[in-house]
Amino acid sequence: MLDYIRKVFKFIKRNKVENINNEEAEVYMAKFGLTNNGHANGQNSGNNGEDGQDSKKQWNLKRFFKEWVWDTNGDPYYYWLGIISCAFAYNLICVIGNHTRSVFFELENGPYWYLWIIFDAFVDFIYLIDMFVQSRTGFLEQGLLVRDLQRIRKVYLKSRQFRVDLLSILPIDLLIRPIRACPYIRFTRLVRYPRFTDFIDRTETRTTFPNAFRVCCVVFYIVVIIHWNGCIYFCISEWIGLNTDTWVYGTKNIQSLPEGIEDTLGRRYVYSFYWSTLILTTIGEVPPPFSDVEYVFVIVDLMVGVLIFATIVGNVGRTEFQAKMDGIKQYMALRKVNKQLETRVIKWFDYLWANKQTLSDQKVLKVLPDKLQAEIATQVHFETLRKVRIFQDCETGLLAELVLKLQQQVFSPGDYICRKGDIGREMYIVKQGKLEVVADDGIKVFVTLQEGAVFGELSILNIAGSKNGNRRTANVRSVGYTDLFVLNKNDLWNALKEYPDARKLLIAKGREILRKDNLLDENAPEEQISAEEMTEVLFGKLKTVQTRLARITSEHISTKAKLMKRIEYLEEQLKISQNETTKSTEGLSA
């Protein structure tokens, strides 16, 4: 735990606040509390020395508490999750999970009872600090990290998470301790379980040994479950009465307390753990139950044991996603990819998992018949596609076919969707997030594209006379995490083959838009035939020639056969005629 704290403060010292040099970008970023350092690295590289000296003078603890916002993808936040997870594990194992103090009261009322108060107070203090951390933890909006402290605090105080956190730190156990020690009341600390699972998920993403880590997690969960069940068994034994029969703990149960073995706290705990292991794993024999309560408990235990272990061992909800991520991590390690790029890749996977985007729409809908796929895709994406200006007056059938072609892509902060001069092969629709159209230097921002914006639609139409051709005319960069719908050029033209009228309409609209922007050469033909289309036309003509040639060849063969038969017939007739002439000549001579 102390190691985590040291790492947090080391990271804070390394990441001191720098001056913002780009005033235009600062105005735009201000509402999200973002700096422009990431976009102006080139410009600021020569001033690192002076900026570093200024930041050292300005940096102090007071400013840290006033301005620091926790980034959920940053290392400090991850280390803090490790600290709060240790506190949760204490409550889970020592107080709640295995009921050690709630069942074995010798621990709670023994000579070291004051140590439990110290530990409980320390863990509760960590829980309290965690509420402060969450009140300063930024969240993603339109793919951007919100850093406005007042807004973050307002959202947290109104959230369900705040009420849950408040419930988890109510010190009821300390208030009633002078009257009676009751560790059961600390069960409310269990509601911090989501913080623990968040740390597990992030560690599974970050570690270079994910399989070994998953095995450790499974072992941990199994041990905790066995603790729970073992302590419940001892609690039921005390409720029924120790030494009552051969099932409960006591001298009559030879397995639990054979002759010559002293009845100690350690013996009670170890046997309860042993009994729980046997009953949950069903790999050994335990004394049979006698009373109805004992039978019910054993039946429930066997059913729960089967269900819980099947759930833990067979939990494959993240198997496919983790397999892909593990493969990429191994590849990056093998190819010695630099740490910065590796971190970007891991954060991209984290964003996908956090936003439930581990599967594409195509994979999810693949199991459905084509009719249902079309209906779902139309209901989800139809209105989005109709907002595109070149598609506003198109046939419904064409739009219904195009919605099945839309593919979703996620871009990380700072990624370029396209650069000026690139060949345009796709059009993009912004589903969520923000994009910037920037100059070649990457600093000056011309315009910001928000949710619902469309770009690149003209470059996939192959409009004849376009002065830009099919080239991109601007640099488009993602500000935060941005979700885009992508329509491929080939998919569009394949769909337009069945809709020739819609094709003419789209080209006419594209020419009109280019004409307004003075980007159209009026002397060019209205429709330009692409190389693919020209190839298809040539193939069609070739097939026609081949068909005609085959027909001519067939006719030639048929005619030749008929002529041969006629020649043979004439030859036979000639021979007959010659024979008759010869006979008649011989008759006259005689």
Summary of the model, kept short:
It holds the Pfam family Ion_trans. This protein has 590 residues and is an alpha+beta fold.
Shape: elongated
User: Would you identify the CATH H-level superfamily of one domain?
Assistant: Jelly Rolls
- In the predicted model, the low-confidence regions spanning at least 5 consecutive residues are 11-58, 97-103
Distance between the termini: 141 Å
The number of distinct helices, counting runs of at least 4 residues, comes to 24
Strand tally is 10
* Major sheet: 4 strands, antiparallel
CATH architectural group of one domain: Sandwich
Strand content: 5-15%
Strand-pairing-aware structural class: alpha+beta
Helix content: 55-70%
Write the layout of secondary structure elements.
Layout: H1 2-14, H2 23-30, H3 41-44, H4 48-58, H5 61-67, H6 75-97, H7 100-103, H8 105-109, H9 113-134, E1 140-141, E2 144-145, H10 149-158, H11 160-168, H12 172-176, H13 193-206, H14 210-240, H15 265-281, H16 292-313, H17 319-334, H18 339-354, H19 361-365, H20 370-386, H21 396-403, E3 407-411, E4 416-418, E5 426-432, E6 435-438, E7 445-449, E8 454-455, E9 475-478, E10 482-488, H22 489-496, H23 500-516, H24 531-589
Structural overview:
Pfam families: CLZ, cNMP_binding, Ion_trans. Residues 390-504 form the Cyclic nucleotide-binding domain. Keywords: Ion channel, Ion transport, Ligand-gated ion channel, Membrane, Transmembrane, Transmembrane helix, Transport. With 590 residues, this protein is α+β, with helices and mostly antiparallel strands. Among the domains are: 75-206; 320-355; 362-517, Jelly Rolls. It contains 24 helices and ten strands. It has helices at 2-14, 23-30, 41-44, 48-58, 61-67, 75-97, 100-103, 105-109, 113-134, 149-158, 160-168, 172-176, 193-206, 210-240, 265-281, 292-313, 319-334, 339-354, 361-365, 370-386, 396-403, 489-496, 500-516, 531-589; strands at 140-141, 144-145, 407-411, 416-418, 426-432, 435-438, 445-449, 454-455, 475-478, 482-488. The radius of gyration is 39 Å and the shape is elongated.
